[in-house]
Amino acid sequence: MFNHSNQQQAPFVMTPYNPPFYPDLTVFEHPSVSFDYPVEREFIRQRPGALFFYNIDTRMGATATLGAGGNYQYVSRIPGFGRWTHIVGTANGALLFYNADSGVGATATLDAGGNYRYVGSLSGFGRWTHIVSANQGSLLFYNADTGIGATATLDAGGNYRYVSRIPGFGRWTHIVGSANGALLFYNADSGVGATATLDAGGNYRYVGSITRFGSWTHIASANQGSLLFYNANTRVGATATLDAGGNYRYVGSLSGFGRWTHIVGLANGALLFYNADSGVGATATLDTGGNYRYVGSLSGFGRWTHIAGV
């Protein structure tokens, strides 16, 4: 399905330049586990959101929409995909597909109605363990083994442009990008984190470090910089905000979550929870202040290995 040639420059793993992880003694309040729930606020950005589902074993895909109020609607099934290890959605409606084994990629778009359109293929990628989107269509690539990173942009039409390579990163297990351009880095083994920004042109800027995080298995960004932290082992969560300047603020803790294998946040503030083992799901919302609201449960999902939101 992805067989068109596109020779735009893709990030290679070479030895480049830019800021490493700078140790900073500033300590931010971190998501901790307690029993206070956040106070719900009413405002959520009223913009459409769409979801792309993919199964790496069957090469099957599907699309759906998820409104700002957490209302889910299935759209269509799409067969015949290639093999992809990473799929990333951007806030401007583009999708990036990447195969870490072969170094090939492809781009597509997903409109507000959940309609999928293939754009073209990419080749010559380096080896990356993480790819995240921040801002409206900026991308950060990271290799946890080498500490190398790179940036690129992906416009609303699915057109890819390489920007720069970045060496000297620390060791991170999770990287999350938000639609306001902020980035959160987190190491689940050490409990340390850091923040940075990625502008609309794909230019990276380090902001500062964060220490004494709790233990989290999943971190999702929704709305314009709100964060949901979740631990699949303890079923507890927490919320925080990350503003456009990369400034982190803890909001509150949550308890009583179910068991989820995937959590996806959208720029409209909606969240999708999914359990790949049981086929059940749920939706919720996260407002601009980081206040969480549960919406409802979903059942009858197929088996999906990747879910990306735009």
Spatial extent as radius of gyration: 18 Å
Tell me which oligomeric state these chains represent.
Answer: single chain
- The rounded distance between the terminal residues' Cα atoms is 21 Å
The biggest beta sheet is recorded as:
4 strands, antiparallel
Helical run tally: 0
Under CATH, the topology can be stated as Methylamine Dehydrogenase, Chain H
Give, in spatial order, the strands making up the sheet with the most strands.
3-2-1-24
How much of the sequence lies in strands comes to over 45%
**Number of DSSP strands?**
24
What sort of overall outline do the alpha carbons produce when their principal axes are compared? globular
The H-and-E topology, N to C, reads as EEEEEEEEEEEEEEEEEEEEEEEE
Structural class: mainly beta
- Residue windows where pLDDT falls under 50 for at least 5 positions: 1-46
- Helical residue percent? under 10%
Describe this structure in words.
The chain has 310 residues and is mostly beta strands. It has a single domain, classed as Methylamine Dehydrogenase, Chain H, CATH 2.130.10. It is built from no helices and 24 strands. Strand 6 and strand 7 form a beta hairpin. 46% of the residues are buried.
Q: Helices and strands in order, then pairings?
A:
Blueprint: E1 50-55, E2 60-66, E3 72-78, E4 86-89, E5 94-99, E6 104-110, E7 116-122, E8 130-134, E9 138-143, E10 148-154, E11 160-166, E12 174-177, E13 182-187, E14 192-198, E15 204-210, E16 218-222, E17 226-231, E18 236-242, E19 248-254, E20 262-265, E21 270-275, E22 280-286, E23 292-298, E24 306-309
Antiparallel strand pairs: 1-2, 1-24, 2-3, 4-5, 5-6, 6-7, 8-9, 9-10, 10-11, 12-13, 13-14, 14-15, 16-17, 17-18, 18-19, 20-21, 21-22, 22-23
